[in-house]
UniProtKB/TrEMBL annotation:
<keyword id="KW-0812">Transmembrane</keyword>
<dbReference type="GO" id="GO:0005886">
    <property type="term" value="C:plasma membrane"/>
</dbReference>
<feature type="transmembrane region" description="Helical">
    <location>
        <begin position="189"/>
        <end position="210"/>
    </location>
</feature>
<feature type="transmembrane region" description="Helical">
    <location>
        <begin position="216"/>
        <end position="238"/>
    </location>
</feature>
<feature type="transmembrane region" description="Helical">
    <location>
        <begin position="20"/>
        <end position="42"/>
    </location>
</feature>
<feature type="domain" description="EamA">
    <location>
        <begin position="129"/>
        <end position="260"/>
    </location>
</feature>
<feature type="transmembrane region" description="Helical">
    <location>
        <begin position="79"/>
        <end position="99"/>
    </location>
</feature>
<feature type="transmembrane region" description="Helical">
    <location>
        <begin position="54"/>
        <end position="73"/>
    </location>
</feature>
<dbReference type="InterPro" id="IPR037185">
    <property type="entry name" value="EmrE-like"/>
</dbReference>
<keyword id="KW-0472">Membrane</keyword>
<keyword id="KW-1133">Transmembrane helix</keyword>
<dbReference type="Pfam" id="PF00892">
    <property type="entry name" value="EamA"/>
</dbReference>
<keyword id="KW-1003">Cell membrane</keyword>
<protein>
    <submittedName>
        <fullName>Permease</fullName>
    </submittedName>
</protein>
<dbReference type="InterPro" id="IPR000620">
    <property type="entry name" value="EamA_dom"/>
</dbReference>
<dbReference type="InterPro" id="IPR050638">
    <property type="entry name" value="AA-Vitamin_Transporters"/>
</dbReference>
<feature type="transmembrane region" description="Helical">
    <location>
        <begin position="156"/>
        <end position="177"/>
    </location>
</feature>
Length: 263
């Protein structure tokens, strides 16, 4: 899980830096197109079909477009990661609302803590557009997760992700007409390689290995190391220090998310 935390945690500050040279649409396309190029040799095939295509739209294409805009408008990319990782809370709420799944007292407490933590984190710096998009992305991710659980739970994860990454590159390619700006420098070229490598390739390879070794539940709980890693790496690369409210609110949010997963 250390590889997952470092790869996905690093992708937040790297994407924030990249967005100063590259439009969100171009960065999204590069993440998927180069990510597919890196992933396909490891997958040794793809898991394709209509359910896989819809999952790609929800879990990849729309998710990453919104993520990049959230990072563009956020003051701290690490806070964005915390808000997006409220996804398990939304999963639990939606399961209870639409599928009648019962929740434990610990999970209910986790929901309250998570949303209180979010309010505390963003209330200190006002609820700006970046924060709104990050929470929206967490909700979208939860919808995509539930769809995956209902339709694709028995798929080969590596082959599924290889297809979803490749198909997402095709889905987002028309958005390049909206804004195709790319400031060509050595740093922007390096970032255009590092973001797909960390976010779409190494992160998922480490993730699938962790799921196989630790199981899905334990791996999901330990994935909360990603926002912590994002805070540390955002400070190292951008000098971004969380405010007291962001620090305490993020900690409360992650504790709440953990309780919903382990309840």
């Amino acid at each position: 899980m250390l590889g997952v935390a470092l790869s996905w945690g690093l992708s937040y500050p790297l994407s924030k830096i990249a967005l100063s040279y590259i439009s969100p649409f171009v960065l999204t396309f590069l993440r998927f197109s180069l990510g597919a190029l890196f992933l396909l040799p490891f997958a040794k095939g793809v898991s394709a079909g209509k359910p896989q295509a819809l999952s790609a739209l929800l879990n990849n294409a729309l998710f990453v477009v919104i993520l990049n805009f959230a990072l563009l408008y956020s003051s701290n990319p690490a806070l964005t990661s915390v808000l997006i990782y409220t996804q398990p809370v939304f999963v639990m709420v939606l399961e209870r609302a639409f599928f009648g799944k019962k929740t434990t007292k610990k999970q209910s407490l986790g929901v309250l803590l998570a949303f209180f933590g979010v309010a505390l984190s963003v209330g200190s710096a006002s609820f700006d557009l970046g924060s709104f998009l990050a929470v929206l992305d967490g909700f979208l991710w939860s919808v995509g997760t539930l769809y995956h659980q209902k339709r694709l739970v028995n798929s080969n994860l590596l082959q599924l992700n290889a297809f979803m990454t490749l198909f997402s590159a095709l889905i987002v390619s028309p958005t390049l007409l909206l804004n195709h700006s790319f400031v060509l420098t050595r740093e922007s070229l390096l970032l255009s390689l590092l973001v797909p490598l960390s976010a779409q390739t190494l992160g998922f390879l480490f993730w699938f290995n962790a799921v196989n070794r630790l199981g899905a539940i334990r791996a999901s709980s330990l994935s909360l190391l990603v926002p912590i890693s994002a805070y540390l790496l955002s400070f190292a690369l951008l000098g971004k220090t969380p405010t007291k409210f962001e620090f305490v609110g993020s900690a409360i949010t992650l504790i709440g998310v953990y309780l919903t997963q382990r309840g």
